[in-house]
């Protein structure tokens, strides 16, 4: 497609863009389990107003935009407080979980090189760890050792310890892991990393803005944050269960000394001194301002309310799935993530189901899940926006599973696509 010969007016532009959205998921209706997390119309109004005010700001140079420097500092400080980092913790905002993970891995590589003389760095992650760790290993020249999960879908810490060498710069745990929604044994992982002199990263991109509030509400949350000795960095996404628009995340380090390893500094340029704490150079100030506005508008009580709603909805979903013959929840997730799979041993007389056929049939009814494998499953991230339609969802799911059993529905397409590719 070429540019139009003549520019188009605003109404025509808006009409064309709206038409392109015809096949997008309907997250506004609560029928999408992931991708967008809806904090409600009052929060939308605040975010819409802030968006127009900060649309053009550039966070490349906070001397030119000191407001963005202040915003970033306050967001990071609040996130560090939620993660019990104390006054020593420090960090930066990023564009999302992948960038936060990239910066944690880069910081570990640089610390290993500078402090320990490691020129062939290695890292150890579970097979449940986010794909961004593999992207980081590929990008930064790090040998990655992937270890299996146990029957409960948590990383096998014995296998992890066996993979640690004198060249290990990073050991990773997830709180919770995205695929099945369980929290790794962060205390044991941190001890393994600390014994090796390596960085230990807790990937709390999915949990960093729900686990603190779940704990405040009285839920039993396993240790995962800076209260665990040996944890050196944490990633937490504000644009997930922090309910901010995309893309806003934070990467937190236990200290400023550890944080400095992620920052690139260069002073041999004709343009003058250059320093960047992220993969990006120019950064939009818009997501930063929206994250601040979201956090300060909701406050602790607002987050506690949204977390309570989300966790109740997730518990209802888990119970509802387990009550349907032919499908089950993988493992024992306790919070807002779950994976739905075919029951490997259906009750006597009950037909097995193809879970991807179930997913396709639910999509035809307007419900969106990501496909996962192995094993074949449907992923769900439950947020407060899903709560109002959970009863309708479970009715449709029971109907679809029954139809799949009756017809032995199956699909040839076994793909699992979580990507930005055409």
Write up what this structure looks like.
The chain is α/β, with parallel strands linked by helices and 422 residues long. Helix content is 39%, strand content 14%. It is built from 12 helices and 13 strands. The strands form 3 sheets. It has a 7-stranded mixed β-sheet, with helices on both faces. The protein has a 4-stranded antiparallel β-sheet with strand order 10-11-13-12. α10 packs across α12 and α11 (355-364) crosses α12. The chain is globular. The mean pLDDT is 94.
The radius of gyration is: 22 Å
Count of distinct structural domains: 2
Number of helical stretches of at least 4 residues: 12
Strand content: 5-15%
The level-1 CATH class of the largest domain: Alpha Beta
Number of strands: 13
Q: What is the assigned CATH homologous superfamily of the largest domain?
A: Type I PLP-dependent aspartate aminotransferase-like (Major domain)
Strand order in space, largest sheet: 1-7-6-5-4-2-3
Large-scale geometry? globular
What is the name of the CATH topology of the largest domain?
Answer: Aspartate Aminotransferase, domain 2
Q: Termini, distance in Å?
A: 16 Å
Q: In the CATH classification, which architecture of the largest domain applies?
A: 3-Layer(aba) Sandwich
Helix content: 25-40%
